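Working notes for the structural subgroup meeting. M.R. asked for a predicted model of this chain before we commit to crystallization trials. I am recording the input and output together here so anyone reviewing the notebook later can reproduce the run.

Input as submitted:
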Amino acid sequence: MARQKEFRVLVATDGSRDARAAVSATLAFPWPAGTRVQGVVARGRAVRAPDWPPAIWAVLDGGIERVTADARRALGRRWPAAEVVIVDQSPVEAILSQARRLGAGAIVLGWRGHGVFRRLLMGSVSRGVVRRASCPVLVVRRRPDAIRRLVIGLDGSAKARRAVTFVARLEPPRDGHVTLVRVVEPMREPSTPLLPASVRGTIHREVAALNAERRARARREVVKATAELRRAGWAVNGLIRLGAPLSELLAAVEAVSADLLVVGARGVGGLGRLLLGSVAEGALNQSSAPVLVVR
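Returned structure, recorded in C-alpha cell form:
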C-alpha cells in the first residue's frame, strides 16, 4: 500500500487574543493522523525604522521572541517537535510564503491581531490570506473548547465537493457529527397579470418543473456527500432548505451549536482566486463559529 503523504498545517500567531484562539483551535482540530504543525510569526519589515534607538529594537525583538516561545510551548502540548519560525516579511506575504515552503495543506489564523508589535493579524490580513491561499484556510474568532460539531455548506460547486472531501480526510472525534446544509434558492414566477391565462399556466408549470429539478439535484448532492462522510466515520445529518444560502447556513450553525462552519470559496470573474463568493465572505463576517474556507 502506498504511504499517505504527510499532512502539514501552518498556524500564524502574533500573541493577540484571536491569534491565541487560532493556536487553541489548531490544538483542538481533528487533523489527519500524523499531521505535522508549524507556527509562523511575521516580524514585518514595515514596523522597523533605521533611526530607532537600540532599546526599541530590543523591546520589539524581545516581544517577538516571547510570542514565538509561547506558541512553541502551546503547540508542543500536542506536537512535541513543533517548531515556530520568524519570517521577515509583511504579514500576508510571510504567511503565504511560509505555507508554500512548508507545503501546507491548511493555514490557521485569527480574525484580528493586536499583539506586541502593532497589528500583525488584522481583518485585512486574514482576508488577504483567505483570498490568495491555494489551500484551505481556517479563520478563528473565539477559542473553541472542542471541534466536534461541523456544518458544511453545499451548493453544487466543485469547491463544495472539495470541502466534503477535506472533512472526510480528517480523524472524526468521538461524537463527531456533520450537518450538511444544501440551500435551494427557488425560482420565482414573474408577475404576468396581463398575459392570457393559458400563458400564465405554462409559465407556472415551467417554473415548478425547474424548482423540482433543483430540489432533486440538491437531494442527490446531499446523499452523495453523506455517503462519503459516513464512510470516513462521521455521523451525518443532511438538510435541504429553501431560502437564502448565507442566512440558512448561519441558522444551521446556531441550531446545532456548531464548532465549525465549512464552506467552499466561489471566486468568480477574471481575478479567480483573489475573489471569494458572497457566502464565504458573509460567513467570515457573521459566523459565530470558526470558518474553514476550502478551495
